[in-house]
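Because showing beats explaining, we think one record worth quoting, sequence and backbone structure tokens together, and here it is:
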Amino acid sequence: MSGLYRVVVVLTILLAFCGLQPVKVYGEGKSQMLTLDEAIVIARKNSVDAAVALNELKTAYWEYRIFRADLLPEMSLEANAPYYSKRYNSYQNSGGSYSFVRNNYMEMYGKVSVNQNIWFTGGVLSLESSLDFIKEFSGAKNRQYMTVPYAITLSQPVFGVNEIKWRRKIQPEKYEEAKAAFLSATEEVTMTTVQYFFNLLLAKENVTIAQQNFSNAEKLYEIAKAKRLMGKISQNDLLQLRLNMLNASATLTDNTSLFKSHMFKLRSFLNLSDTIQINPQVPESVPLIKLEYAEVLAKAQANNAFAHNVVRRQLEADYAVAQAKGNLRSVTFFAQLGYTGTGNNLSPAYSNLRDNQVVQMGFKIPLLDWGKRRGRVKVAESNREVTESKIRQETQTFNQNIFILVEQFNNQLEQLNIATEADSIAQIRYLTNVETFKVGNISTLDLNDAQVSKDSARRKQVNELFYFWFYYYQVRNLTLWDFECNTGIDTDFEKVINQNIFAL
């Protein structure tokens, strides 16, 4: 932006007229020039906040992967090979009396099953195949095989809540919320970077101002001593200039200490070496864009994690009500169709097959529970109403904040332009007053006033520049949209997570 270049030119002229050279305040170590964009890139890669956001994304990602796996067939192997028993067991005779019988046998058992959840009914469909073998080591020493080549089993709840169907609604929304939250967290890292960066930049400008003011005060004091000897200024003016020089020296010391403190904070946030001395650079330009509330609101409602959060919370509230109502009664249908065979050898056990069917209907209906289950339904319904009320209130606040932010951003560009021009004028005015004071045409009070105006204008220009970038990235954070490039803010989440996994 042209106003920023004017400021640089004015400062150069001021230094030239006053015969000053900037004083280094970075201390020992390697000095690294750092732009705002470079700081943002480093922060997104190295900061602790970015690592926390990534870990939260990984948690949501694996929860989603588990949910997706539940919708796919699951194969399992169950085996008991071998089982050996040699002991006495109790046996009830036909007359009701008991006796002990000695057993001495070995058993082996194996089963392969494939289970498939049926999401639209909530049931489970299974395909099984099993083999059971028993070998006696006493008595007739028989051996026996029992086979189930295949059996199809259906277990279906009739009135209970369909857990899989509700998870199929909630989990994708939860994952989308997590992805949006990750992108927002990344933008929040950027906003924090902007704060730390401009704190350091303003501290640097304050040090530069303090250096200039001290050097000017020192030189003006020397000039004033010569004028006092010639009787052109009063003793009071001379003492005032001496006091100005002492105050400028104290201010320089304080600002240098504050600069080092802000450098430490930014360096720690970016996870940079303690030996690096950061030299922040003033952003040379800003994007010239004007936002419309309706457009920004539409982007925020479509992309922000809050939008997915609202949908998820509503679904979870509905799910809680459905669960409470499903627990009022429980009815389960069970059916199994298949074939089984037995034999002393393996071949007959698979050839001499007979049909094997099981049909079962079980139910559990409370006859007297003193209204507990009905009460749980009322509690769930009340909680759902509370959730809906909170969502309406939060939505209103969200929309209101979007409106305020759009107004702040649109106003900030104008404020920045005004502050930039005012900075240029104040610098030129101070330069003029310094030269005028040298020839004795203005008082020390007028010179001090020009200096205060110059310093204030410079600080305000840097401060307005900070607010512009802070509002800019706040808009990006809420909308997950880059209005400068007119593109959405997105990433390859699978790649991000996999890179992190392989890095471990």
